[in-house]
Task: structure prediction
Amino acid sequence: MSQLLSEFRRPELLQIVALTLRVTGVALLLATVVGVPLGAFLGLVRFRGQRLITLTLYTGMGLPPVVVGLFVYVFLSRSGPLGSLGWLFTPTAMILAQTVIAFPLVAGLTMSAVAGVDRAMHQQVFALGASRWQIAWTVLREARVGVTAAIVAAFGGIISEVGAVMLVGGNIEGQTRVLTTAIVLYTRQGDFAMAMALGVTLIAVAFAANVLLLRLQGRLRDQ
Amino acid sequence: MTAGAAVYRLEAVRHQYAGRAVLDIETLDVRQGETLAVIGPSGSGKSTLLRLLQFLERPTSGRLWFEGREVTAEPPLDVRRRVTTVFQRPVVLSRTVRSNLAYGLRVRGVKARPGEIDHLLDGLGLAPLAHAAAPTLSGGEMQRVSFARALAFDPEVLLLDEPTANLDPRNVRLVEGMIRERQAQGVTMVLATHQIFQARRLAHRTALLLDGQVIESAPTAQLLDRPADPRTKAFLSGDMVY
Result:
């Protein structure tokens, strides 16, 4: 136990936590900025080809992260279409991979939440004089608990993800090492105390972030 | 009441759902400042008529006019904002009662006149619930919130679909009191109701709708006491008319 506690004082731990929060936070922000409006649009509007887009999103929600990592790796590798950017084995590549993983979760679950709002609500706000945009915004607001749940689910999906960030980040010490990839490394090296300390930290970070998101959800629900 | 110019005019309006005709109106006018009650059994087309007047649906054929302007296709927002509906099934926003009442004003970008929201809350017995979350209210309370919310932005036309269906007699009196207040201000109303006595209490003119057709339309006392059409007589006496 005392050995485990001493591991929390290792200087690299703070750096790993900071990078984990940065990569996951930026990826979640990007997925939210793009995914929530797209999910809201798909939940509000009916058009030809919508089922195909819905099916694609739902498939994306179940994509194995390591496969996403593989595709991002191929795109960013020296001979790939985006190779000239030089992003492979950088935090930017990890953010890109995590955004691709989080995006279908945010968009798909937002779509379900918005589509689940009673159609009578659309008609009611129309009858109260709301413009098309105001109707869309009001319905999205009504679906806010589900939208927050979408963001929580995406956060949980990417902060605990290891395959994609390992592939495109390379788990380079001091540069691309995050909590999950560090756990893999220290476990393989037999440094179980450090691996356990990282595992506990990962759970604590995820718990704290979810407390924040759920508090936000609760506040939104009460408004 | 002096009959004003036509606010709405329906000409040869037909409406179908999945190929089934639900409304077939040769002509119908709703005049400025009048309250027109539309009575008829369930499924006669009362709610569909209100949905057309609220521009929620376009007629399958025929023409709809609003103050001399054709609005058969989608009307502009400024026309839409002069009309509102209190639906039979109240739908409240997931926010406080007071915030629900302010919604119509907020989307118009205007502030409530001082005391206006409080007047509505008091008048409909909602003052103690002003800060309650609207979705937690009972059906009758939601109905009153829905009614107050429709009045809060001073609509020129009020479409009422069974506005007192969920209310006890005391609250029916409160709502009807508010309706009379707005009648005195010259608000044009269309009231769809099952309740013949409510039509008698509130409407200047009443129309009987059967199978989507206007069977008879006349000043309320005349239609209820001296109906001209045998189907109106049968409906008013409670006989089966389908």
Summary: The beta strands of chain B are 6-17, 20-31, 35-39, 61-66, 69-70, 83-86, 157-161, 188-193, 205-210, 213-219. The mean pLDDT of chain B is 94. The interface with chain A takes residues 54, 56, 77, 80-81, 83-85, 87, 89, 91, 93-96, 99, 103-104, 107-108, 133, 146, 149-150, 153 of chain B (CB under 8 Å).
